[in-house]
Records
---
Amino acid sequence: MKEVSVKEIANWPKESYALIDIRDEGLTAYGMLPGAVRLDPDGDRKENGERINKIGREKKLVFYCQIGRRTRELDEGQLAPGRDCYSLEGGYVGFVSAQNDDEAVREEKQQRAEESIRKKFHKQLFTPFARGCRDYRLISEGDHIAVCISGGKDSMLMAKLFQEIQRHRKVGFSLTFLVMDPGYNKENRALIESNARTLGVPITVFESDIFDAVDTIEKSPCYICARMRRGYLYSKAKELGCNKIALGHHYDDVIETILMGMLQGGQIQTMMPKLHSTNFEGMELIRPMYLVRESDIIAWRDYNELHFLQCACHFTETCSTCHEDGTTSSKRLETKKLIAELKKENPFVESNIFKSVENVNLDTVIAYKKDGVRHNFLEDY
């Protein structure tokens, strides 16, 4: 399929072409290009044909994937016979990076993003962020916090919320915005750096060879990758004089983890709002987005016309993307859909799942673990 650059498309009349996103559902859930239509090139051929036929025949079809590799190899004769088809050079990442090249646009986006946190989304974002920090005692006087940025919407917003809460000066603490490059594609790393510049987040980037190390692992590579990334982040943060690392898990991550633990792992557990590191003495992990809803993060992202990565690993083009805790997006997406279905019948289902691990009655539990030791109700019966 012939390629077309972002600059070339910018000179086309908007009504002369249609954007078609061929990425998997896990990636498109994190954002699509404006006006794009999603299509699964490996899906039902008849259904794909019907979707394409709905697009006026006078329009050019511009297909895009994450970084432009898959679309170059598409067979336009099978997908859209007789149509004028193109592969978007650089894909989704290239398009977004191009939007951030203009300095005036960057300044405007930063100002708008910060103002929206203070005004339009103050109640939805800043208030639960501040409440989580207060209720779980996540920030203390004199802390040096490594804000770990993966390049996704959650960690980038977390960085902006930290900047905002620091501006209030109720507690004296310092921040280092830490990005680890474990072997990103150059396009993905460029997008992370581009978004950081656009939002005014002064990142510190360090490199590791994690992706090379897990390249040959067949069983649970995402889990092992996540564990290794965590260790590298702790190590670098401690080297930089930090006593805490902050991760961008939000409220929905918490309830999905609770449900996945029960359905997939046969256990009751949750993501904790903070943890002492067992391998790095004096270090602590905190999750200040613990009470922030994902729908509000998405609303903030879309209101400010921001585009982030879900996963920046070099497997993104060929596998389901992974989550920070090592679970694949397919399992998380499955759980997310299940919760959405349950919510149709019970509007309180999300808060009930969240509260369930706060209201554990040990008198009605068959067995539990404490400090690695298993206890059974028969011990005290």
Note: Residues 103-333 form a domain with the Rossmann fold fold (CATH 3.40.50.620).
---
Amino acid sequence: MYASILAGGSGTRLWPLSTKQLPKQFLPLASHKSLAQETVERLAAIAPLSQTYFVTFGQYENLVKEQIPDISAENILCEPKGMGTAASIGLAAVCIAAQNPHAVMGSFHADHVITKSETFISALKFAEQVAQEGYLVTLGIEPTYPETGYGYIHAGNMVMEHSQNLRAYQIKRFVEKPDRQTAEKYLLTGEYAWNSGIFVWRVDRILEEIRQHVPQVAAVLDKIAEGIRQNRTKEAIQEAWSGLTENITIDTGVMEKAQKAAIIPVDIGWNDIGSWASVASLHSANDEANRSQLTKDGKIIHIDTQETFIYSNTSRIIATAGVHDLVIVDTPDSLLICHKDQTQLVKQITEQI
């Protein structure tokens, strides 16, 4: 399998640690390795590094080279500006198609955590089989609670079954983030999964669907494909990208319109690290339900403190007394103190800054 890793996000919801200069995909949030490094390692069982492409921005090119030193410079694709995942994924697809026009590719985000790697790889191998039949395949996350912050996918009739209790279903529809009452109904039916943004398909099929449903993107990709044939890929990307005038996601631009799309519901220990509350959930709790991650020789003192998460990459002592339900993030430049149920407000802080 070929792999496309999307690594262009700015991760503003994880300020003050994640910044535009050093966004979350290049940070160690789940272990001592960055999320991008963990993504590459996870995929190594199915996609060799020679067949792995990073789609990012020019300002992060050196970060990719530093963290993934063995990747070829030609496999780092730099978008001049973000114009949606339809263009990002299409860019990787035309580069892969230039090598193998019928290859199967997977599209992954560089900033997700997946703890059940063996199940994940098994699901990808099954997805590859389904993709060979011409389906656009997505891995759907089996919901465990009525989350209102994710999109949902409604599964229809089964189209293929795998020996390891994996099944692929026709996609009935994509649903935007529901209210809690609707999310509870989805959970009860057992027919809905969270939209993970993980996709598997043949490159010829996804380029065919892009051509049909988002011709503006296809026209840009055609120019880049011509540049690849002329051995001037980077120049062609820079020149053609101005033809994109609308930000289009692969979900709304292609997947919601495709007739032959399938979903494989999975439990892979998935976490999209969308907030500090998500980061906190990655770490074990003590008897008072406090959690922490220290990347330097700092120290934490808790007195009468419960349900609090502390992340620090400084050497300071952080002491709490008589508080609960907080997120505290200490960096050399900034300090964040936030109620753990309001971590989505962090994005508003970055907007004001």
Note: Residues 148 and 178 are 5 Å apart (CA to CA).
